[in-house]
Structure formats: structure tokens, C-alpha cells
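This entry is passed on directly below:
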Amino acid sequence: MVTDKPPAALEALMTPDDITAAQADAARWRYGFYVVLTGIVAVLVAFGAAVFATGQFAALFAGVAGVIGTIIGAYFGVQAGQSGKARVEAELVRSNELVIRLAAYVGTANAPRVIDEVLGRRRI
């Protein structure tokens, strides 16, 4: 059984740069919010002009409610999808770095033994 622990300095090198990822995520939310807000204001201005010109509030309100609901739903759907994607990509980078560092630590002489102990014997 492999009992060697990597040195503490190795763990310190594996900490990700979460600050940059958090700043990019915050900027995406902020600018996306501004775009959605601008779209909603434009739709409401067009709605007000149409109501003023035609006097039909109820019929026009149904269309506006659908458009605004679609814009807001798309905004939050895209943001949630991007956030999940970014989180998975960051985890993939972190895992890949860990694997490379551990492979370098184990070395080629001990690699087959460690792989067999961790993953089990290979079935062919």
C-alpha cells in the first residue's frame, strides 16, 4: 500500500486562482443584467407608445408580458449554464494539475504498482 504523503509545499501549489474566476463571473452577471434591463425598458417604452396610439391595454399587455418573461428566463438560464460550465472547467483544470503533479511525484518506477493499488488490477 502506498503511504507516502506529498509534501505540504505541493498542496500549497495546488490552490486555484478563484479570484479571477469570481471577477469574471461577477462581470458577466453585471453586464448581462444591464443588457436585460435595457431590453425591458425598450419593450416597456414600445408598449407605452402602442397603448397611447391604440388605447388597447389588455391585448398589448399579454404580448409584453410574454416578451419580458422570455428575456428574463433566457438571461437566468444562460447565466446559470455559464456558471456551471465555468465551475466544471475550473474543476477539470484543478484535477488535471493534481494528476500531473501526483504522476511526477510517484515516478515511472512506481507508477504500475500505484495504479494497481488505487484502481485495481486491469481486466483485459
